[in-house]
Amino acid sequence: MTFWIDTHCHLDASEFSADVALVRARALDCGVIHCVLPAVRVGNFGAVRKLAHDFSFSYALGIHPLYVPEAHEDDLLALDAELERRRSDPRLVAVGEIGLDYFVPALTQSPLRERQAYFYREQLKLARKHGLPVILHVRRSADQLLKHLRALAPEGGWRGIAHAFNGSEQQALEFIKLGFKLGFGGALTYDTARQLRRLAAGLPLDALVMETDAPDMPPHWRYTPAAQRETGVAQGRNEPGELPRMAQQVADLRGMPLETLARATTANALQALPKLRGLIAC
Asked: What distance in Å separates the CA atoms of residue 236 and residue 9, rounded to the nearest whole number?
């Protein structure tokens, strides 16, 4: 059987509250043997940790840029303390999800733009302090993310994943140069995602990891158009079990067997998040 790692999904989201065990079972049936669960705020640190231990997954701790407006300085202290407290936990594999979001208009204006940058830098410092990789939120912010990564690089360089990457080829190569893998998922399943498909087809194979961002970023076969949502039809929910079908599209774009892509992306995930090596036997 072909095995996969979903390097980014949010099983603690309310969309999964009623059936998370069934979601996990469906993922395992599809060969998705492991999921990485990034936190988005201090309030869900405990939830991602518990799910990771309950389901033999892994987790990351961080403050997402969309939650920066409600975050406080004490949240950074809480993150530092929790990273120290869980230092010996083999399932804590990264600091994340952290980064910058310049897509949401309100977050691009002062003072939130500067506040985002402050929280991002401080969390990079914590990742460096605790010797952990980082899982990056990248949305119209690649150049600024790269700027701070270069300025705060640890002695041995960075490891981690640029989640849901959708920048230019030049930006992609800069992240790769700094030690990052690039996450691909549901967005590339749309016919309109021509640039993203070019990246998935042409970037070095050893730079790619697969992810779902479930319950968000549904593939095209789970997407509900806006007109239908206005009539009350719910948005389709993404799940880790959709990952192999997304990966098939990447394999087709690259003209390679699906099994070869699975082996490569699994190896890449283990390289990006080294503590996974102690959790996964495949």
From this structure: 15
